[in-house]
Amino acid sequence: MLVKFLLIVVLGFLTVGGSSPLVHNRERSSVQAFVESTRKGDVDKVRLGLAAGRDPNTLDASDQKHATALMVAAVADKREVVGLLIQKGARVNATNSEGMTALMLAAWEGLSDTVQELLKGGANIDATDKNGATALVFALSQRHSATARILINRGANVNLRAKGQVSPLMYAVLTRDPEIVADLLKHGADVQAQNDRGTSALMLAAQSGQPKLIGILIANSADVNLTNKNGQTALIAASEKGDLESVQLLIRHGAKLDLRDHHGFTALSKAQSASQTTVIQALIQAGAQPD
Predict the structure, then answer these.
(1) CB-based contact 185:220 (threshold 8 Å)
(2) What is d(CA 224, CA 214) in angstroms, rounded to the nearest whole number?
(3) What is the separation of C-alpha 159 from the centre of its chain, rounded to a whole number of angstroms?
(4) Is residue 175 within 8 Å of 143, Cβ to Cβ?
(5) How many CA within 13 A on the CB side of residue 271?
(6) In whole angstroms, what is the distance from residue 4 CA to residue 9 CA?
(7) Could you read off the pLDDT of 70-114 as tens digits, one per residue?
(8) Per-residue model confidence (pLDDT) at position 26
(9) Phi and psi dihedrals of 59, rounded to 5?
(10) End-to-end CA distance of the chain
């Protein structure tokens, strides 16, 4: 009788208020197994799971950022699974806790084929995360020029800026890829855009010693005398760096020698303070006057 009573109590405990912990754990394991099949690209298992009623928008329980099964498949570069999930109702523009979509995650990784599959499935090419970054910005920030080029050619807005007002063109300058810079300009990138510190793409190119990019930007009407919030010009930046080729290029295209930043430095005095001998000579030969 005691055994029977205990059995009744246990069964009652397991059924009152919902399913038992054992059933719950079994279900959770089944859900995670489905997610893992998307990560591995096991199309047959994913298809079976969906046919059995598994939600195509299932979350990855192991991911603290709440990635969906689609995001898991996208980051794993499982294009076929990505297509299948979208076909079966996965929300292609769903976001994780950081506001990132599957497209942004794939662009961050430079997974060009998966990016194209997501775009084919209706991904919003200009969606932004919590910091205002788009898939294009993510691709450029990680120097994935091929992926960035796909996004540009598919109509991504080339002037949407991320946190700090950093434009895609500015990120492109940091990739040191002349072709991607030219592509952005060809598709309407604002060559005069400045970030929240007043820095333009031309200034970034001068600061990082990239005369080839400086030439491309100037050819696309970049203002050589634009100043940042410290009053610094591209010429002052290039002079401090000691980049003779960039200094000469800027001078040839009208950079003013006598402009001073907010600390009173001209291009010449900045070169002198940095002991850039060859640049000092070039600036004086061009007509710069010592203080």
Answers:
(1) yes
(2) 9
(3) 13
(4) yes
(5) 26
(6) 9
(7) 999 999 999 999 999 999 999 999 999 999 999 999 999 999 999
(8) 58
(9) -90, 150
(10) 106
User: Measuring CA to CA, which residue among 280, 240, 237, 236 is closest to residue 259?
Assistant: 236
- Tokens matching residue 83: 């297509």
275: how many CB neighbours lie within 10 A of its CB? 9
Q: Pick from 129, 121, 140: which is nearest to 73 by CA?
A: 121
User: What is the secondary structure of 236-249 as a DSSP string?
Assistant: HHHHHHT-HHHHHH
Neighbouring C-beta atoms of residue 86, cutoff 10 Å = 21
Q: Which of 164, 150, 161, 154 is nearest to 128 (CA)?
A: 161
The kind and range of the H/E element at 135 are: helix 135-141
Q: What are phi and psi of 169, to 5 degrees?
A: -65, -40
The three state secondary structure string of 183-228 is HHHHCCCCCCCECCCCCEHHHHHHHCCCHHHHHHHHHCCCCCCCCC
CB atoms within 10 A of CB 278: 12
The SS3 assignment for 16 reads coil
What pLDDT band is residue 15 in, cutting at 50, 70 and 90?
very low
Within 8 A by CB and 6+ apart from 226, the residues are 192, 194, 200, 202, 203, 233, 234
